[in-house]
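User: Hey, my collaborator sent me this sequence without any context and asked if I could get a structure. I don't really work with proteins. Can you help?
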Amino acid sequence: MKENENGPFYTFFVDGVEYHIEESTITGGEIMDLAGISHVVGLLQLLEDGTQQSVAVDEVVELKPGRRFKKAPRYKRG
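Assistant: No problem. I've predicted the 3D structure and written it out in structure-token form, which is a compact way to encode the shape of the chain:
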């Protein structure tokens, strides 16, 4: 949580882009909407140990310092 002239805000990153919101929780769908990611594509959370975890559209995420997400990769058969 950080402070600005309007009060506290929470920061998270999606594909390297920083986002700020005033609430301490957000759903996976709201993150995707802010980042312009289709709900069909999906979202991954990058964990501190280097692993990745899928985030469901309706899953509530508690924002803590350093939360990072990325668009789920699209696999092509070939």
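In plain terms: Residues 2-71 form a domain with the Ubiquitin-like (UB roll) fold (CATH 3.10.20). You can pass these tokens on to your collaborator as they are.
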